[in-house]
Specification:
Elements (H helix, E strand, L loop, with lengths): L14 H6 L6 H11 L25 E7 L4 H4 L6 H9 L1 E3 L2 E2 L5 H10 L21 H7 L4 E5 L11 E2 L2 E2 L16 E3 L13 E5 L11 H19 L4 E7 L9 E2 L1 E5 L6 E3 L3 E2 H11 L21
Parallel strand pairs: 1-8, 1-9, 2-12, 3-13, 4-7, 4-8
Antiparallel strand pairs: 2-11, 3-10, 5-6, 9-11
Helix pairs in contact: 5-8
Length: 310
């Protein structure tokens, strides 16, 4: 199966050792985090950042919203009559026809997408909250003065780090594993703003175990996406913003090939790409949109190209 996992990477220390090397944020960074946390976002100043300007090959959207669904292969969704809304986004946006997850089961894929590494996680068990200090998308955006937040369906309370509650599961929320990401940036989905201009620069939307197609049907997840994110998608199409719809992994029967659809004003309508991409490449693309550093294996990843209006 084509995957970034086949590319050589420098050996990583065991997760327990990496946790022992945890570093605390500096006083200035902490002060910025507290201030931005009061706004429900996270932005920090990081003087001396070595990050390069945004890559010329990718756009710089005003807002990016990433929605992650669960455990379905490409052919179970793309072209399926059970997913009319996702297919309408693919028809009006861009469809990545050779998009792949990294591994199984779910949780390590979320960490790969957020931090460029599975962080030594191999199962869906609840993690030690705040135990990691590795670079990730949230810290990189903050270092560039950009904002970040997550919106999590069925999260019992703002910033809750509980392992599970009702249809909510922590395993789909990798940001809780990092001590350098304020828990105040994890919101309930009810906090998703009606005024989309108030969204952070980048946000992740995580449906619950039914809405994400894990425990319920493709049709259920597709309807949930239309009901809850169509307003944003329509707005993004005329406000220099982007919606990314992807999946954590496939059904274990299709070589981990997953649907990934991009929609919004920066996207060339009706475009597609047969280039092989994976979670590290998606992360790399978002990083390069804002000229950040590259976390983990995203450093050896590649940008999504050939689907942008520019």
């Amino acid at each position: 199966m084509p995957s970034a996992s086949s590319r050589p990477h420098a050996p990583r220390a065991p997760r327990t050792l990496r946790i022992l090397r945890r570093r605390r944020p500096g006083v200035l960074a902490a002060a910025f985090a507290v201030f931005a946390g009061s706004l429900g976002l996270w932005a920090a100043d990081a003087a001396g950042s070595s990050a390069s300007p945004a890559a010329a090959a990718v756009p710089t959207p005003d807002h990016v919203v990433v929605v992650v669904f669960e455990n379905h292969a490409y052919d179970q969704v793309i072209g399926s009559s059970s997913a009319p809304y996702i297919n309408s986004l693919a028809a009006g946006g861009a469809n990545l026809t050779a998009s792949y997850a990294e591994t199984h089961p779910s949780q390590p894929n979320y960490y790969a997408l957020f931090s460029g590494d599975t962080q030594g996680i191999t199962d869906d068990s609840c993690v030690d909250v705040g135990a990691l200090d590795e670079p990730n998308l949230a810290t990189e955006l903050a270092a560039k003065g950009r904002t970040w937040a997550s919106y999590n369906e069925s999260l019992p309370a703002e910033g809750s780090t509980t392992c599970g509650s009702g249809k909510y599961r922590q395993k789909h929320n990798p940001w809780f594993g990092f001590g350098n990401v304020p828990t105040s940036t994890a919101h309930t989905f009810a906090a998703f703003p009606a005024d989309y201009a108030k969204l952070p620069t980048v946000s992740f939307v995580v449906p619950n175990m039914c809405s994400d197609m894990h425990d319920c049907s493709v049709a259920t997840g597709d309807s949930w996406l239309k009901q809850n994110l169509k307003g944003y998608a329509d707005w993004a199409a005329s406000h220099n913003s982007l919606l990314i719809v992807t999946f954590d992994e496939d059904n274990r029967l299709s070589g981990n090939r997953i649907p990934t659809v991009l929609y919004g004003q920066p996207v060339k309508p009706g475009s597609s790409s047969g280039t092989t991409y994976n979670h590290y490449d998606v992360l790399r693309t978002v990083e390069d949109m804002y000229g950040t550093a590259h976390a983990g294996n995203a450093a050896s990843g590649k940008d999504i190209t050939g689907v942008w209006n520019n």
